[in-house]
Amino acid sequence: MTYTFAIGDIHGCLKPLRKLLAMVEARWASGTIVFVGDYIDRGPDSRGVIDLLKAGPARPHWQWIMLKGNHEDMMVGAYAGRYDRDWWLDNGGLETELSYGGRVPTVDLAWADRLPLMYMDAHRLFVHAGVNPDVALDQQSPQDLLWLRPESSAYYWGRHLCHGHTPARANPRTIGNRTNIDSGCVFGGKLSCAVFDDGVEGGPVEFIKAGW
Question: Which segments constitute the Calcineurin-like phosphoesterase domain (predicted)?
Fold first, then answer.
């Protein structure tokens, strides 16, 4: 049996992230961990989170997959001039720059810019925000993948959808064929992880949570 673990929006909350990873690694010897984006902004240690993710798994037999969130896109766009810099700073970018002691280095901007928007396995579809079920999977827009806030469930091309982006204390929560794992860690909630059995279709077999 193999498992995939999906971790919700981190937003600079390095301590809960370390605790959650330790909880997962204490119970399982291997697996795939999918991070669904929003590693930065608002929380106290965005730089620490990025450093940890860039370093990759500390133990063998683990695979990490990092997806891009809208906050990574905002940061990269602010530095590239595509987005208004004050807009990003007002949405948590100031805390990110403070964690670096100034400007975000080019190497970390390049890392964030290269992150993929989607990951699929045999039974699941992982994105940061959501997908438009009325548009073909290979024609999804980056805007929807990064910003959409689903309000219901759909077929999702035969897969279960797992996403973050929309925080709520009630999360992690499965609604039909969709699971939202953003439990608002940076807003006083916990950091959540959905556990999927790779051999079984459908939603998570359990949730794991870590707080401060």
Answer: 6-172
CB burial class (10 A; 0-12, 13-18, 19+) of residue 22? Answer: exposed
Q: Give CA–CA dist 46/74, Å, rounded.
A: 14
For residue 190, give Cα distances in angstroms to 9, 18, 57, 99, 132: 10, 13, 22, 21, 28
For residue 174, the cross-strand partners are: 179
Each residue of 7-39: pLDDT tens digit? Answer: 999 999 999 999 999 999 999 999 999 999 999
The amino acid at 171: N
Say whether 50 sits in a helix, a strand or coil. helix
Element (H, E) at 76: helix 70-80
Among 78, 82, 76, CA closest to 106: 76
